[in-house]
């Protein structure tokens, strides 16, 4: 993962770099560092852990200069340490890197042979040393950087800064995104446009294989074949304001609370006044489609699993769902008339992007459902459907998940309408259920206290199981993911009916089992599975509606009452207790809710 920035400015650059890195900290927070050139002298500061540690260091050991590069790290090669922190320097060059240099072992051997010493365990150090080697041999900075780039295999976004060069950054993109920002007599480089938003809204996106020579007043780009490339400058709309917690203790709490509003926004952007689904141009004709392939990672994958039920039940389209990291290497056949759909909050997830590229030229259409409209996945799709969740900062995805579900359900309804599998009356019924969601979510959020109380008890567990059937099964998976990623409690989810085929052996009096079960057609079946758990002394947390609780509440360890809801939209509403249980459990355990250990918000390495 990692986030990189570069600034050729007219002011002291250290605070600008730190501010830009703050906006990239979602990419990793194992260490952070900056390098500057001041009157020709290259120097750097680095600190382990979050960016605040680098800020503190800069108070005591300031770094002057109007040209600089910066980095926030998610460790891949080498433990989080000051030594392994970027920028990596070798003689006259400093380098920041997002990605993985796959042939770094061969390069290290070659450099060692040539007498170079390594001080870090990182793959990136080879980039700095190679550049130094080429400069020692007489190449100028740009030539040396380009010669180095020719040697690299793997995925990278790189920025190079040079001793003696106050007006030069060399940048390159292969597999990891990189944006160049245009100021007035200033230029910027960033892993994404969000990092640069307070500095400029005029952005050039580098394309695969591009290399760029950046000065304060010029940008020269060469494509993968070495030819001069003319890349457009786009004016983008990103809220430049620093996102804040709006009085909440954590971003995650704020983002959970925002859901009634953002779901309302998503609905407003796709529903016409007369209750039809309107997609952005060029739209999709689902009568030209025989099959859907949905691909994503993590929470977005669970949104796809949910959507499978909707597309199959409502629109009668066969659906395959895959995790992107498996899909991309399985080389699945993609029959004609397949619509390939990629779901990603960030729009930058490396595996999802690679899976999308695999489908190019094979699938009839490539669609994406994204939160960041300027992201790589959005830009490389035939049609990108934004989810309108707003910036999501918490590493644990919450509002993006429910917005993804909402957009996917609307897409399934559009498919049903195109294919004539749903009557006008049934369509209106589903649309009205969607429209009721913001109010129902507000009511559900009023159960916060009950969830907090239950979470306090959950926080003492070592293992927690989640059960659900039908549309509640993917949600059970999402509930377990949320709990483990922020509370570090081991959690697993099963389709309720699968429990007796093995996992029931895990049940004893110490294991809480969260059962997601609105009073729907599958309720009785789920309750039977729940009874099997209670018969073995498992501690059941039943999440249901008033009718469900009245029928099945007896003997449970805890229960949470949700508003009564239309079956089709239930997973969107029931996501809230799943999120709040995880949130309050993590708070009770005192973990780092917004930036849990070992994780990053955007996974740009495979
Ligand atoms: O940005 P994406 O939606 O592509 O990210 C996919 C996953 O990395 C992400 O959903 C991850 O699982 C979250 N941490 C879950 O809360």
TrEMBL record:
Coiled coil residues, start to end: none
Entry GO CC: cytosol
Domain of life of the organism encoding this protein: Bacteria
Location of this chain's protein in the cell: Cytoplasm
EC number(s) stated in the UniProt entry for this protein: 2.6.1.16
Record keyword Disulfide bond present: no
Keywords, sorted A to Z: Aminotransferase, Cytoplasm, Glutamine amidotransferase, Repeat, Transferase
Catalytic activity: D-fructose 6-phosphate + L-glutamine = D-glucosamine 6-phosphate + L-glutamate
Main location (coarse class): cytoplasm
Domain (Glutamine amidotransferase type-2) ranges: 2-217
Active site: 2 (nucleophile), 601 (for fru-6p isomerization activity)
GO biological process: one example: carbohydrate metabolic process
Span of domain SIS: 282-421, 454-596
GO molecular-function terms, A-Z: carbohydrate derivative binding; glutamine-fructose-6-phosphate transaminase (isomerizing) activity
Keyword presence, rRNA-binding: no
InterPro entries (alphabetical): GATase_2_dom, GFAT, GFAT_N, GlmS/AgaS_SIS, GlmS/FrlB_SIS, Ntn_hydrolases_N, SIS_dom, SIS_dom_sf
Record's subunit section: Homodimer.
Record function comment: Catalyzes the first step in hexosamine metabolism, converting fructose-6P into glucosamine-6P using glutamine as a nitrogen source.
PANTHER family for this protein: GLUCOSAMINE--FRUCTOSE-6-PHOSPHATE AMINOTRANSFERASE, ISOMERIZING (PTHR10937), GLUTAMINE--FRUCTOSE-6-PHOSPHATE TRANSAMINASE (ISOMERIZING) (PTHR10937:SF0)
Protein's recorded name: Glutamine--fructose-6-phosphate aminotransferase [isomerizing]
